[in-house]
Write a sequence for this structure.
């Protein structure tokens, strides 16, 4: 199949790079977003998100006239949905007395509804948003068929998960293998024809529900692996072992790959997607639920470590290094670092935080300062919450000159291997029972 014009709904971390890619590979692309701020920013030639290299590709796409942005869709050959699928913050489900989070599919529903008036015979609709199993067949298809057309015979429908790593999106969009699940084999083939425009990795065809499950399995297995690393770190502290040393030694085994413990699991993917399994079949997802609980409780573990270090948290001044959900990104969504800061404050500490990738971060209830100097100026304890390159590079001498604190809590193993005691510091590391 040949596609000349495509319409991409949702211009976030996935939709915008994807739109720019199609546009720089010869297609006419209309990018759609319901947020007027996003449209205004993009129309002014600016970006509303930070992703290395995106500014150049988008600029190139816009200058060529192939990429336009608008608030509503238009007729096209293919429609691609890349809107967020968060969970409801307060509307929890319950199974056997255990609460679980439920997917908020409102953005997918309304994006699909917005396509209906423009749907023509021969069109392709692709869902990219991470979604609970069976969303394509049970949610998308019935809405699209309100057009009077029959899915699978009059038009094609496919699910294709995005699997790119924030920070490396542009490279991974091109190089990663792409799974395309069609509601019919012809739908999968249409999806392959579309993505072949720029994907250089393998393109594999399957059915829509398998493709949905593949995506959820990838992120869920990562979450479960991180949970066991976090549990190992607690066990190591109990038994007087340094978990980082133990993990390094265990990973010498050719078939063992233990992940890294840390202050918890954040971001918009790994901490969210496993809930889609739990919600869809709680009676079959006991391990997945437990892993979520372990990872979600990890910021509390950080607070306990801080309490042990200081005796009491009440009235203590704490400098928190990092608010992002992981190293060297500016994304603060579901960040365990931010959660740890809030919890420390609830225990009576006065916390200042510094996030170098978003120095003006305005997070509710968090006092974020704009410089490293400022965050360190008055502190009893310095907590390293995100393993940013910039923080890892700090030497004992530099830190000693910037802060009166002589107590350090490293939750990400960023400061191991330096001679902290000779600069007068006591270094505590999460997972280090020695
Ligand atoms: N983390 C640990 N220990 C580890 C690895 C990660 O605590 O050993 C934490 C990170 O600090 C972070 C969280 O987990 O808080 C998630 O980070 P991540 O780098 O594991 O993943 P994401 O959320 O940035 O991106 C993931 C990727 N999925 C997989 O690697 C299976 C990416 O390929 C997906 O495209 C993305 O989710 C997504 O959009 O679903």
């Amino acid at each position: 199949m040949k596609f000349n014009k495509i319409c991409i709904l949702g211009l976030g971390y996935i939709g915008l790079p994807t739109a720019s890619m199609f546009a720089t590979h010869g297609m006419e692309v209309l990018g759609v977003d319901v947020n007027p701020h996003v449209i205004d920013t993009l129309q002014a030639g600016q970006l509303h998100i930070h992703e290395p290299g995106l500014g150049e590709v988008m600029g190139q796409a816009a200058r060529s006239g192939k990429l336009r942005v608008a608030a509503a869709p238009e007729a096209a050959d293919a429609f691609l949905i890349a809107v967020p699928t968060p969970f409801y913050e307060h509307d929890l489900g319950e199974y056997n007395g255990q609460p679980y989070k439920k997917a908020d599919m409102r953005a997918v529903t309304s994006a699909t509804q917005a396509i209906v008036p423009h749907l023509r015979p021969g069109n392709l609709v692709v869902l990219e948003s991470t979604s609970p199993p069976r969303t394509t067949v049970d949610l998308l298809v019935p809405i699209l068929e309100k057009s009077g057309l029959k899915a699978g015979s009059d038009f094609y429908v496919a699910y294709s998960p995005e699997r790119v790593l924030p920070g490396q999106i542009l490279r991974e969009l091109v190089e990663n293998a792409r799974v395309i699940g069609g509601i019919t084999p012809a739908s999968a083939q249409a999806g392959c024809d579309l993505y072949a425009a720029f994907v250089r990795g393998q393109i594999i065809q399957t059915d829509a529900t398998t493709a949905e499950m593949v995506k959820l399995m990838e992120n869920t297995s990562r979450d479960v692996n991180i949970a066991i690393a976090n549990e190992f770190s607690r066990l190591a502290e109990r038994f007087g072992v340094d978990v980082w040393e133990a993990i390094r030694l265990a990973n010498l085994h050719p078939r063992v790959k233990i992940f890294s413990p840390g202050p918890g699991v954040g971001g918009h993917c790994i901490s969210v997607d496993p809930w889609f399994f739990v919600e869809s079949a709680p009676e079959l997802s006991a391990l997945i639920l437990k892993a979520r609980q372990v990872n979600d409780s990890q910021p509390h573990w950080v607070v306990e470590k801080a309490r042990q270090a200081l005796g009491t948290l009440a009235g203590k001044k704490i400098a928190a290094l990092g608010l992002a959900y992981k190293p060297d990104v500016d994304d603060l969504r579901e960040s365990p670092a931010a959660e740890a800061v809030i919890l420390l404050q609830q225990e009576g500490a006065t916390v200042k935080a510094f996030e170098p990738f978003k120095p003006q971060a305005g997070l509710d209830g968090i006092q974020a300062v704009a410089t490293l100097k400022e965050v360190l100026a008055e502190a009893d304890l310095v907590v390293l919450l995100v393993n940013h390159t910039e923080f890892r590079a700090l030497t004992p001498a530099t830190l000693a000159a910037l802060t009166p604190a002589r107590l350090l809590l490293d939750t990400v193993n960023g400061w191991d291997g330096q001679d902290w005691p000779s600069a007068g510091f006591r270094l505590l590391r999460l997972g280090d029972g020695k």
